[in-house]
Amino acid sequence: MKKLVLLLTLVMLISIAAGCSKADSNEIKIGINYELSGGVASYGQSSVDGIKLAIEEVNAAGGINGKKIVAVEYDNKSEPSEAVIIANRLISQDKVLAILGPATSGAFKSEIAVAEKERIPVLSGSATADDVTVDADGNVKKYAFRVCFADSYQGAAMADFAFNKLGAKKAVLITDTSNDYAKGLAKNFTEKFTEKGGAIVGEEAYVAKETDFNAILTKINALDFDVIYIPGYYEEAGLIIKQARALGIDAPILGADGFDSPSLVDLAGADALNDVYFTNHYSSLDNDPKVLKFIESFKKKYGKEPDAFNALGYDAAMFLIDGLKRAEKLDRESLREALEKTTNFEGVTGTITIDANHNAIKSIVVIGLQNGVQASAEKSN
Questions:
Q1: Does residue 265 contact residue 372 with C-beta atoms inside 8 Å?
Q2: Which of 30, 82, 197, 253 lies at a 20 to 30 A Cα distance from 103?
Q3: pLDDT digits (tens, 9 = 90+) for 19-31
Q4: Residue 338 belongs to what H/E stretch?
């Protein structure tokens, strides 16, 4: 009797295992490691909304060779240390084929250390720090990719815009010194602006989570300058802009993609957001048919206009899916090789070719705000 029970148990376990294997063979698991709560949750939430739209569209069209894409999603709480924990969980427990996210450079770089060790492709739509895909010696991080431009390009592009389009010759910097993103932007803006003949006439610093900027703004108000450049995130930038305008500072205020959040208007107030310009990856003012189709699909699913992080999340997912379709086999190494060979991928945020350092070669757009609303968008290559 015991032998019979053991035999039946064994048969049942084999059947369950076979069933699981069959189910798994029809799925492609992709990890989502994003900031869904915490200080920069706006970026993560927007990115994931775009990712989910892309996956939904691909699955509705039959998936990849009949296989359904399954997203395994976790919240890293805007903490780089939590991003590492989640990356390990996605790899060892969930057995994902690749990981999308995090959104920010610091958290993404923390995850890359795990990815390199475990040999799994990781991809960010918005980690712009120059050292994301290369180490201190210039060696390429083999498994890390991004579909956004780097800060060196972004900072230089804004310096060009300030000097050539706004006619600025004197600039003041207000930099978040607590993160690499802001410091990289400040460095590259300064280098390009001074190279063109401009001068940095004042530099002030703050750290994330500060809320009162009146002291540094009062010092700046006594200077002679044409523009203010604020490389940083919307949380502090919104408050700086509001307080600057309240002090009567009406000079153009410049920033980067960290400005792109609906919360910027909430924090600064629409009246303060005049003559505000920031570099970005995408604008809803773009009349490209691919962009218009994306906007229509996004509005149908979410009932609102998409922002740049929605578009970057969408492109990150579609870029990964494009690699999966071209990979010789559905394994991590084949996927990595396919991603490296990406050329002229037509995304919502531009046509993307991956260079030797796993960076995206693509266009950039400078968005101008008037009364808190996008009033202009100038694209450059």
A1: yes
A2: 253
A3: 333 335 799 999 9
A4: helix 332-340
